[in-house]
Specification:
The protein is an alpha+beta fold. It has helices at 11-17, 22-34, 87-99, and strands spanning 68-72, 78-82.
Length: 100
């Protein structure tokens, strides 16, 4: 990424090349000056950051090993099942046990 003033780069050229507005560059400069991190002699170099596109599909999460679960029902009964059990099947099982 080029920096304003290096190799004749203007604010407009740097903004266009990096798909940002000139106002954003001026706002960054202002914030840097306010924090004492900008000097007109040295300037600042903005480096590109690779950010995934909005809505990009995240990588698949690591599979979690199933764990035993114990569920105590209001009627005093207890169900033991595997955490990988299908939610619909578990719901049917709970309803069956509660009505028995």
């Amino acid at each position: 990424m080029s920096s304003v003033g290096i190799d004749g780069a203007t604010v407009t050229r740097v903004a266009q090349r990096n798909d940002i507005t000139r106002q954003q560059i001026y706002a960054w400069r202002h914030e840097l000056k306010k924090k004492g991190l900008w000097s007109s002699e040295q300037g600042a170099v903005f480096l590109p950051v690779d950010v995934p596109a909005f809505g990009a599909t995240p990588s698949e999460p690591e599979p979690v090993p199933p764990v035993p679960v114990e569920l105590r029902l209001a009627n005093g009964r207890c169900l033991r099942f595997d955490s990988a059990m299908d939610a619909a099947a578990l719901t049917r099982l709970i309803r069956a046990v509660e009505t028995a």
